[in-house]
Amino acid sequence: MTRAVLLLAHTGRSKAAEAARSVALRLQDAGVEVRLLAEEAEQIGLTGVTVCSTGVEAAQGAELVLVLGGDGTILRAAELSRDAGVPLLGVNLGRIGFLAEAESSDLDGTVEHVLARDYAVEERLTVDVTATLDGRMLGSGWALNEASVEKGHRERMLEVVVEVDGRPLSRWGCDGVVAATPTGSTAYAFSAGGPVVWPTVEALLVVPVSAHALFARPMVIAPSSVVAMEVLPSGADAVLSCDGRRSIELPHGSRVEVRRGTIPVPLARTPHPRTFTETLVDKFELDVDGWRGRGRAEH
Fold first, then answer.
1. What is the CA radius of gyration of the chain?
2. pLDDT confidence bin for 54, thresholds 50/70/90
3. Which H helix or E strand runs over 123?
4. Cα separation, 44 vs 19, whole angstroms
5. Do residue 100 and residue 165 come from a single domain?
6. Cα separation, 254 vs 251, whole angstroms
7. What percent of the chain has pLDDT over 90?
8. Distance of CA 269 to CAs 114, 172, 259, Å?
9. Global pTM?
10. Is 175 in the active site?
């Protein structure tokens, strides 16, 4: 049976387009069917690939979704891999790339692992999100990183009541509220002052953004809990955003509920000793080795 890999790249960057051409040729040489979305295939300019008109079509039946780009490209790929139940493997060609399994310097080795089927799959927790108004459904969605309720107008503060498991917790005048997964703890939630949570921890995070209140601390809650946010008429209208990619307008009185997702995102992990701690140190450019050197010198 022919193996198939869906290749996604941030083709707006010349580095990513060049890497995609190189990877596609290596996969083809090994007898692997390479699938590309139509718009990306045109930009990359390869022959002998399978060009797909839709992402759903492209991911179905594939062995892997291989992504070359930053976190935004990986989040786009997660929409395809999750719905198709196909593992996602990201190679960071962007700036931060917390979601990526490998860096650009590891690209050749990563392709070798793919060809050898030398990878394991882990499931990342997601959240399912619903938005209603007076019992009427406004929309629904899901997120790998976070669902955020943010003010729709810059000049006004958002007034929101936050509930956990049906119990009102706090009322905040704020710029927004982020409900994040452990995977998303290093994204928007972290920028808003939330804690870093190891991705293997099962939990949900609630992080207020620029809240004007005495109690406005980020919280880590049970993965079985349901977080609800109600937009009050005393503040601005709001917008619900899922992973910064899918949004729903929220009029006054809207209610957003966030709970553990029914479908996780499968991520492929190649066999190397890189830990999440090492990823944190590298991404935040912490001079840990220098600190260790000073500590040894002092003693």
1. 21
2. confident
3. strand 120-124
4. 10
5. no
6. 6
7. 70
8. 10, 40, 26
9. 0.90
10. no
For residues 183 and 146, give the distance between their C-alpha atoms in angstroms, rounded to a whole number: 9
The total number of residues shown for the chain amounts to 299
3-state helix, strand, coil in the chain (%, to 5): 25, 35, 35
pLDDT of residue 17: 86
CATH number at residue 227: 2.60.200.30
**CA proximity to 187, closest of 278, 96, 60:** 96
Please pick, among 29, 71, 83, 165, the residue that the annotation labels catalytic.
71
Residue with tokens 């939990």: 203
Tokens 């996969």 — which residue? Answer: 27
pLDDT tens-place string over residues 19-36 = 999 999 999 999 999 999
Whether residue 44 contacts residue 229, with contact meaning beta carbons closer than 8 Å, is answered with no
Torsion of CA 258, 264, 267, 273, to 10 degrees: 70
- Cβ neighbors of 81 (< 8 A, separation 6 or more) are 59, 65, 87, 88, 265, 266
Question: Of 106, 91, 97, which is closest to residue 272 (Cα–Cα)?
Answer: 106
Helical (H) or strand (E) element with 87:
none
User: Are residues 132 and 215 located together in one domain of the fold?
Assistant: yes
In this structure, the answer to whether residues 208 and 241 fall within a common structural domain is: yes
